[in-house]
Each structure stands twice: as C-alpha cells, then as structure tokens.
Amino acid sequence: LQLESRLYQTVDARAFEIALQPIIDLKDDHIVGAEALLRWPQADGSYISPAEFIPIAEETGLIIPIGDWVMEESLKAVQRLRSQGFPDLQVAVNLAIAQLWQTHLVERIVSLMRSLDLPASALKVELTEGSLMNDIERMEEVVREFRDAGIEVAIDDFGTGYSSLARLKSLPITTLKIDRSFLNGVPEEENAVSVVNTIAHMAYNLGIQSIAEGIETEAQWQILQEMGCPLGQGFYFARPMPEKELLALLLMQA
Ligand code: G
Ligand code: G
Ligand code: MN
Ligand code: NA
Predict the structure, then answer these.
(1) Number of independent structural domains in the chain
(2) Domain EAL spans what residues (predicted)?
(3) Residue-range definition of the domain harbouring residue 26
(4) Domain of 145: which CATH number?
(5) Is 37 in the pocket of ligand 1 (CB under 6 A)?
(6) Of 209, 109, 202, which Cα lies nearest the Cα of 150?
(7) Is 198 helix (H, G, I), strand (E, B) or coil?
(8) Among the atoms of ligand 2, which is closest to the Cα of residue 51?
(9) pTM for this structure?
(10) What spacing in Å lies between the alpha carbon of 179 and ligand 4's midpoint?
(11) Separation CA 214–CA 71 (nearest Å)
(12) DSSP secondary structure letters along 6-27
C-alpha cells in the first residue's frame, strides 16, 4: 500500500501539521478555544484529509505515534497561546478509539501537561460517539480517568451514532458536540430546527455543555443563540488555521 508506507515516512519525519479551528462563545462570538485538526501536507501543496488516513492509521497501529504527536503539539500550541495573553484558552484534541486502549494514556497526558505547566482546564478530549458505544466498560473507565484528572470530555459527532439516552446519562462526559449534519436545513426547515433544539435542550437538562458544529451562516448562529446553545464552531466564524493566524485573530479580538 503506497499510502500506508508514505504514512510511515511522515510519522518518522514528524511532517504532519496541526490546524486550529476556533470554538466560539455564541453569546458574544469571542474565541474560547480551538479544536486541533490533523493535516497531512503533500509535495504538491495539497492535503490528504484525516478522514482518509485516520482509518489506515488505526488499522496499522500508526495512530498511536500520530496521536501522541498530535497531543504533544496541541498542548504546546495552547501553552504558547495562553502565555501570549490568552490564559483561559482551551484546546480540544480528537482521540481515536485505538488510543483509548493504551495503558497509562491519561497518566501520560497529565504528566505532559504538568511538564508544560498547563492546568487540566487547558485540554478537552473529543471521543466519537461511535467509540463510546464500542466497549462500554473500557470507555467508562477512560472517561472517568479523564474526569478524575479534571480534563473535560466531549462526545464528538453526537447524533450520528446510536447512543441511547441511558448511555449518555451513565457517562460522566462534560460536552456534547452536535454533529454538523444536523445544521443542514437550519433555519429554513422546521423539523431540522426542532431536532437541534431538542438535542441542545437535552444536553442542558443533563448538565452537559453543547457545541454546535458546522455553523456556516449568520442565521444559524442567531437561531442557536436563541436556543441557548452556549458554544459553536464553523466556517461562518473561522476555518481551521495555523497557530500564527489564530494568534493574530485572538489579538484582533482582544
Ligand atoms: O478537519 P477535517 O474535516 O479534515 O477532519 C476530518 C475528520 O478527521 C474529523 O472527523 C476529525 O474529527 C478527524 N480528525 C482530525 N484530526 C484528528 C486527529 O488528530 N485525531 C483523530 N483521531 N481524528 C482526527
Ligand atoms: O468530526 P470532527 O467534528 O472532529 O470534524 C471536524 C471537521 O469539520 C473538520 O474537518 C473541519 O474542517 C470540519 N468543519 C468545521 N467547520 C465546518 C463548517 O462550518 N462546515 C463544514 N462543512 N465543515 C466544517
Ligand atoms: Mn472533533
Ligand atoms: Na464532529
């Protein structure tokens, strides 16, 4: 497999990049954090999407060194940004299911954060709804370990899997990311609006923070604000960008 061997080389050369997409407080549109999104740059200047290579990285086990790299780079980036005048900024890092099986995963993250002098609140981890449904006992254990360490845990792509409400109630997650597919048809279709409204209110009633993903228009922002959804993310506010650009944006906003 050519893709696979090129992936190996990229891991060796540590030649991935991280893009940061701002996460916004929907009340006043200020940036509260950013999601770290892995980028694989190609010789011709294009990028291969993680949607394409993460599954291969999972099959080959490469997700472990890649995931470690993403975590370390994301924490270093947020540490730099926090020290440049944004001490409350948080970074959200996606974790693949295979990473959740690593022994001492949480311990290693905690000690990395300690060595960077970062409090637990500087990090949120994102687990896909699919992974949380995978091995119930293991997932509960990992989520609890993160929570015991004070690290927030989000369910990513919420609503695309088949988590039961009972399951949601039994996991001590802090955040639910409403999958961007739910924003299709918002605000013009009544049913689409109802679904998003229902998810946002369910989260609120469970004491869980919600983040609406894929906000692309001002009208979507408006209606989510009216629903009381606290946080959002999407091209309307900002695309994933290099750390330097995020710093410039933060400075402009300050
Ligand atoms: O940003 P983009 O649309 O290219 O991301 C595509 C998918 O890849 C998303 O589902 C996103 O969650 C996932 N992804 C991006 N970066 C990472 C990462 O560092 N680790 C894992 N496991 N998934 C990632
Ligand atoms: O699965 P996850 O939520 O981690 O994936 C994040 C992905 O969503 C990234 O690939 C990112 O580029 C993409 N994304 C972020 N905001 C928007 C948006 O407003 N519209 C669309 N279509 N994609 C978005
Ligand atoms: Mn995500
Ligand atoms: Na998502």
Answers:
(1) 1
(2) 1-254
(3) 2-253
(4) 3.20.20.450
(5) yes
(6) 109
(7) helix
(8) 10
(9) 0.97
(10) 5
(11) 23
(12) HHHHHHHTT--EEEEEEEEETT
